[in-house]
Amino acid sequence: GFFVNLDATALLLFIVVFILTADYIKNRRLTGFPPGPPALPIVGNIFTLDHKRTHESMTEVQYGDVYSMRMGQRWVVVLNGFEAVTQALVTQGDSFSDRPSIPLYDDIFHGLGVILSNGHMWKQQRRFALSTLKYFGFGKKSLEPMILEEFTYVAKEISKPFNPHLIVNNTVANIICLLVFGHRFEYGDEQFKKMMKLFEQSIQIQLYNAFPQLMRCLPGPHQKFKRINEELKDFVRTEVKDHKQKWDPSDLRDFIDYYLNEIQMVTEKSFKGQDDSTFDEECLIMSVLDLFGAGSETTSTTLRWAFLFMVKYPEIQERVQAEIDSVIGQSRPPSVDDRADLPYTDAVIHEIQRMGNIVPLNLPHVTNRDVHLRGYTIPKGVTIIPNLTSVLFDKREWKTPFTFNPGHFLNEEGKFVKPAAFIPFSAGKRLCLGENLARMELFLFFTSFMQHFTFSMPPGVKPVLDYRFGITLSPVHYEICAKPRHE
Ligand code: HEM
């Protein structure tokens, strides 16, 4: 019995030593690779990070502007500060513009659409989305009047005190609905309410990404998440079907109509054997979900930060209102053309975006070749986190990085200036595709709210600038009062 036990123990010991050695050899930092914290075998640095404030723990490191961590079996390089981030994304943009594979999302989106695609697919879909957005957002068919009209609906909904979360989400989602579906929804519409609820679902993806083969077979929240996304696809599919029935090439009403037109042209081209197109209905559905996923919660979260900052700094709110009163008055709605005459308001919106820091760790990138960056060698296939928190709060770039200070965006004469380190939309080839739309929405919604309402906390409540960390950084739910400025 003793010998059998010894053999079993020895075998176990041998296996453990073998696994640890293999893990060490496979995963050690090669010469020239960026430094970083020591990693545990197998799991790496997964437990080194504070999951409630990952963006802050990634920013407060002592390894310099380029450092590495191992998340399970995957190496991740974090870029910190304006210089390192823009050197990678802009100066060396060709090497850093791809997305890594994210198993859970790959299983749902299959690499289609804009946000998660690469190569030819990404180029075609991004170019198409950009030009369509330009046409419907700012061209002959501008979204400006629709945004102003949407404000009149949300203004009617406000009773005090209220939780702005749902209301503002609906408002902003409707702008994307107008863009892609060509119509808005009543806030009480059952279908709309259901869609908005589905979009609210989020999930921890670390475990699934670390062990995709295993997780695919196991039950758990990821299976529910997949089902929810299938429901969202069905929702869009119904809209597409509807658009196909009413489709008229001489009157393209919205994003879906334009896309159907593109598919039509592809069919004609492929007869001539020139088919390198990525346009089809599945891809259309993913692109539409991309626009919702990237374009709705982001803008809505920024507005919810805006209300909180105005309540926290009532003297800033008053100054914004005074500027709006003197330039626009009360008898007409704001227009994007007013921006140049509202430097203080513009500065406040930018400072809200800087301090709000709503995409704290950016979206992940990946090296698509071996690269040299700031003295380090990073092989192809390493996940890159161009940490936006570290840029928007970079001590070398901002006078008072941790204080709300519209002065960051004003020169001595009170004119608006934009420091280069203001990159909440990221930079380079993957730069947010909706930046112009988001900026127009933020400006029109924010000035409209300030023109018509004064925000304050309910009696006896202090504003809390606490957040929930996820892909976006959103304020914890709060209630707020909005007092009409003019009855
Ligand atoms: C990507 C920020 C609004 C569509 C991104 C990225 C950031 C960002 C940081 C990642 C860029 C990178 O990987 O380097 C924001 C912020 C917004 C906003 C702060 C609002 C305040 C919007 C809107 C839309 C949109 C309104 C669409 C209508 C997209 C898309 C991508 C993207 C499609 C993926 C681009 C690509 O992979 O090529 N955004 N965004 N975003 N955004 Fe936005």
Please supply descriptive tags for the structure shown above.
alpha+beta; Cyt_P450_E_grp-I; binds protoporphyrin IX containing FE; heme; two-stranded antiparallel ribbon; monooxygenase; iron ion binding; 8% strand; Cytochrome p450; transmembrane helix
Can you walk through the features of this model?
Keywords: Heme, Iron, Membrane, Metal-binding, Monooxygenase, Oxidoreductase, Transmembrane, Transmembrane helix. Its cofactor is heme. This is Cytochrome P450, family 2, subfamily AE, polypeptide 1. InterPro entries: Cyt_P450, Cyt_P450_CS, Cyt_P450_E_grp-I, Cyt_P450_E_grp-I_CYP2D-like, Cyt_P450_sf, Cytochrome_P450_fam2. One of its GO terms (cellular component) is cytoplasm. The protein is an alpha+beta fold and 487 residues long. The protein has a single domain, classed as Cytochrome p450. The chain contains 19 helices and ten strands. The mean pLDDT is 91. The longest helix has 26 residues. A hairpin with a 2-residue loop joins strand 4 and strand 5. The N and C termini lie far apart (91 Å). The strands form four sheets. It has a four-stranded mixed beta sheet with strand order 1-2-6-3. It binds protoporphyrin IX containing FE.
